[in-house]
Amino acid sequence: MRYKLYLLMLITPLLPGCMTAVSSSASAVYNRYNLENTYNNQMLAWQAQQNINHNTQLKYETNINATSFDKMILLTGQAPTENLREQAENAAKEVPNAKHVIDMVQITEPVSSFQQMQDSWLTTKVASQIITSGATDPDNVKVVTENNTVYLMGSLKRAQAQQVIDIATNTNGVEKVVTLIYFLDPKTS
């Protein structure tokens, strides 16, 4: 039993990467959100994370993660003080070509490694359900989970967005869903 638990603890952090590979392969057939945009978003997130981790205090006293979609950088995680949260936000704002930084960092002590594994598992569950539902091209939505809160970033039509929101909301273990979605169609009255 201990062996299975240990194996699960080792594999869980790798699952979101597997889902990215699956979604990238699945979307190769119909890809509105092209490879260049995906690469640019990954670079923006990487640059923001590098800027944050360059500050030793931020690197070791906080748990802050940068994610990017459509040139917007989302910061999630925890910082023990408002000052550290602001330093992380300012570091992310220094990234060239980023349109906007959305700071969702909570002022609290960083979560445990076990919680981080649970969050990775929730991200995997939500992303895989979005893929299997066929609600949208998986490259049009980004799923991030932090402390059982799922953040949905993307560019979707309203009906697609509602399907994705419903999937995340109804996933076991998700406590809250935050939508950061740009609607591709006009609001109907």
What descriptive keywords fit this protein?
2 domains; Histidine-containing Protein, Chain: A; 3-stranded mixed beta sheet; 23% strand; alpha/beta; 7 helices; 189 residues
Summarize the SSE layout with pairings:
Blueprint: H1 2-11, H2 15-27, H3 35-54, H4 56-61, E1 63-69, E2 72-79, H5 82-93, E3 100-103, E4 106-107, H6 113-133, E5 141-146, E6 149-156, H7 158-169, E7 176-183
Parallel strand pairs: 2-3, 2-4, 6-7
Antiparallel strand pairs: 1-2, 5-6
Helix pairs in contact: 2-6, 3-5
Structure description:
The structure is a single chain. With 189 residues, the protein is of the alpha/beta class. It has two domains: 31-110, Histidine-containing Protein, Chain: A (2-Layer Sandwich), CATH 3.30.1340; 111-189, Histidine-containing Protein, Chain: A. It has helices spanning 2-11, 15-27, 35-54, 56-61, 82-93, 113-133, 158-169; strands at 63-69, 72-79, 100-103, 106-107, 141-146, 149-156, 176-183. A hairpin with a 2-residue loop joins strand 5 (141-146) and strand 6 (149-156). The longest helix is centred in the middle third of the chain and has 21 residues, at 113-133. The termini are far apart. The model is unreliable at 19-27 (pLDDT under 50).
What summary fits the major beta sheet?
Answer: 4 strands, mixed
Dominant shape: globular
The number of distinct helices, counting runs of at least 4 residues, comes to: 7
Cα gyration radius (Å):
17 Å
Distance between the termini: 56 Å
Give the name of the CATH architecture of the largest domain.
2-Layer Sandwich
Category from helices, strands and their pairing: alpha/beta
CATH topology of the largest domain: Histidine-containing Protein, Chain: A
- Provide the domain count: 2
**What fraction, in percent, of the residue positions are helical?**
40-55%
Strand percent estimate = 15-25%
Uncertain parts: 19-27
In total, the number of strands is 7
CATH class of the largest domain: Alpha Beta
- Write the element-wise H/E pattern from the N-terminal end onward: HHHHEEHEEHEEHE
